[in-house]
Amino acid sequence: MNTEQVGKSSILIAGAGIGGLAMALSLLRRGIDCDVFEQAPELREVGAGLWISMNGVRVLNDLGLTEQVEQSCIAAERRDIRLWSTGQSWPLYNRAMDVAGNQPYLLLRAHLLKLLTDGVRKLKPGAIHLNAHVVGFSQTDGGVRATLADGAEVEGRALIGADGAHSKVRTGIMGQLASKYTNVIAWRGLVPVDRLAPHQREHVVSTWIGPTAHVTAYPVLWQDTMLMTFSGQVDRADWQLESWSEKGSIEECLRDFVGWHSDIIALVENVDTLNKWGLFVRPPLKTWSQGRVTLLGDACHSMPPYLGQGVNMALEDAAVLARCLDEQPNDLARAFQTYQGLRLDRTGKVVESAIGMLPIFHNKALGTVETADDYIKTQWSPVASKARFDWIYQYDATTVPLR
User: Fold this and answer.
1) 13: which of 280, 295, 298, 360 lies 20 to 30 Å off by Cα?
2) Which of 105, 218, 306, 393 does the annotation list as catalytic?
């Protein structure tokens, strides 16, 4: 890339995922110059669904995307817990009874990335630089110099590492961090609903739970076609590679769901493409920032997907960090420390809660119909779910006090 395209007053953002693009859009809407550096040659997304809960919805509203997102998403009529073997159903959420308006967005990750990309390019057409992998940095009191994989260097006022779980910016701050395999793998895929039975096409979020695995399925839209997302997590000790996009076979996936209800088997058998990855956790970071460099999203608090909060935490980070930079434009290191102070505890608790959900989803009490009924009525009652989720959903990154 031509490094002369980047002004030295720009804030550099490593990574054009949802966190990095939300960060860029939030800054540009405040009149703060920034550039985004993405290692991929094109902004192309592996298919996956997203659950944007109210804490994330507020950020998208603040970014001016509400109307566009609502045109791209499906409103869930209800959410049900279902038993892996029989398909028996227990209600968890009903839109008709939701007086608080806690309506989540169900949409494709690719859709949200496109909306954010379009928003950034509308405000600054040349803001996103592809084939530009930030692999290191150096800094002085006056600025930051980011090094790209091809040897080019880019100067800016500050650097934000939104470069995911394998963050090179994080490595530059604190060195290599060991990750620990959780003995769980995740499957994901998309199924055109016209391949499914009518009862499987409803606008419902279904969370199927069992002794050693669970599956979440919900509908999303892609170019006027309705697809059903398939997201399954399975206890397995035989994984080595930490990756988001390993191809998996239908046959292998079916082996992980032997004995499951025919609705789940039908989802797997009709999926277009399947990806799998091992779920890893890292020890919580005590600091995210070093001078004019800080981290955002999975780079500093990657988490297993059991609460659906990875993307929502990245959106919250972007909103809070943009507000801190807006309030302290002349002392970026101090702005980064303020941001870190506001987000460390919040994200740490969400990560801890997400990890703690695994024995709730996978429990031996779910092995028989008799023990499953009592277990679900206790662990998945509306009261239990309220206690589990409300403190997460009620947070407002757009108004939380900055001091």
Assistant:
1) 280
2) 218
